[in-house]
Amino acid sequence: MRPVSRNGRLALWLCLLASGAAVVAAAGFAALNGDTAGNDEAALSLHPVAGSFEPDDTALETCSEQSCFEQAYGNIAFHEGPKAALTLFDEQYGDGSDPRCHRVAHAIGSAALSRYRDNVARTFSEGSASCWSGYYHGVLERALLSVRGYEPEKLAAVSRGLCDDDRVRSVSWLAYQCLHGLGHGLMITTGYDLPLALEVCNRLSDDWDQESCKGGTFMENISSSYGVESKWVSDDDPVYPCNWVAEDDKRTCYQLVTSRILRVVGVDWKETAATCAGVERGWKSACFQSFGRDVSGQTHRDAREISEICTVARRYGGEKDCVTFAAMDMTANFAGGAQAAGLCATTARKLRGACFRAIGTIMGRFRTTVAARKADCRAISREPRDVAHCIGGATGEALPASLAR
């Protein structure tokens, strides 16, 4: 895994948070709009304890309810392997626009880890990020079932070993998914004890591991609005707990905060932008980055809608953050930059370079060689300046002098 600068890591954390934050927001938006298709689906929590999976004889062709699909896909993963289950899963759920697919992916991950006798690295290597990386979340939830008691030292000791295998660490994207899923698992394992889960994350080996883990922790906390009751959210203060947690934990929280704000105020982008403008000093930019990611998810990644809504943030100085992190979300979601390049083409000219650089920041994590990263950037635009900005994001190279004007 190539070295990553602090800024590069920050960008990667923020955009990859989109893998799950978008589904949290989407579920909330559906509820606000009265979409409760399938009564049992509405009643189930977004992140069940997937680690409790046990195989049975439930078959996919017999299913019409959410719980049945979860069990049936888990059975396929357990008996035939996760690749077989994920192939069928992708055929049914497509681009992941249905938030209910996330729980199914959890079950597939949990069942796969059971099949491979708790070998996290092998299970991860055969998974995918379909439907906001639910597969990886399910793997880590099950992996923590062996922990007895809530002592931070014991939880940290187990946690440190779960994502250390070379097969996981060799690719930044995969390492992040493991650590982020760990955060989800810690919240569930501790009964949604946010301070304890954060303490365990902060006992991991370095900033990268800690921040990635905390992202999953805060995301699981936000998801309480859809089934699991967490006392670490407040309808009276949609920014809480970001304005309460320790300074070292604030960045990760604010990277997700608009998913909570939108849940409280409704799909009101003007009010959400105004709330971001009024957060604690030093965290406005992080809030508008979260804003851009949620705009992308809510619009089903429609480039023109994203560009239009991001202008709402302009009066507060947040338009650039909105556009760039929407571009990151699109790139992460589609595992490629073609769709996000369409966003860059529709946005204000002064933001275009930053937009393409944001795409490169994410695409660079999908490849292990500089040559492959550059080739990916050349494939999404014919404009030399766009390509150069993308390559800068993917490789850390400076913009050529001939294009820097």
If you average the pLDDT, what whole number results? 84
Extract low-pLDDT stretches. 1-8, 25-50
The number of helical elements comes to 22
Strand content: under 5%
**Structural class by secondary-structure content:** mainly alpha
Give the proportion of residues in helices.
55-70%
Cα gyration radius (Å): 20 Å
Total beta strand runs: 0
Q: What string, H for helix and E for strand, traces the elements in order?
A: HHHHHHHHHHHHHHHHHHHHHH
What gross morphology would you assign? globular
What is the topology?
Elements: H1 6-32, H2 39-43, H3 66-80, H4 82-93, H5 101-115, H6 120-125, H7 130-143, H8 152-162, H9 166-169, H10 172-189, H11 194-201, H12 207-222, H13 247-254, H14 257-265, H15 269-277, H16 284-298, H17 303-310, H18 319-334, H19 338-346, H20 349-363, H21 370-378, H22 384-395
Helix pairs in contact: 1-7, 1-12, 1-14, 1-16, 1-18, 3-4, 3-5, 4-5, 5-7, 7-10, 8-11, 10-12, 11-12, 14-15, 15-16, 16-17, 16-18, 17-19, 18-19, 18-20, 19-20, 20-22, 21-22
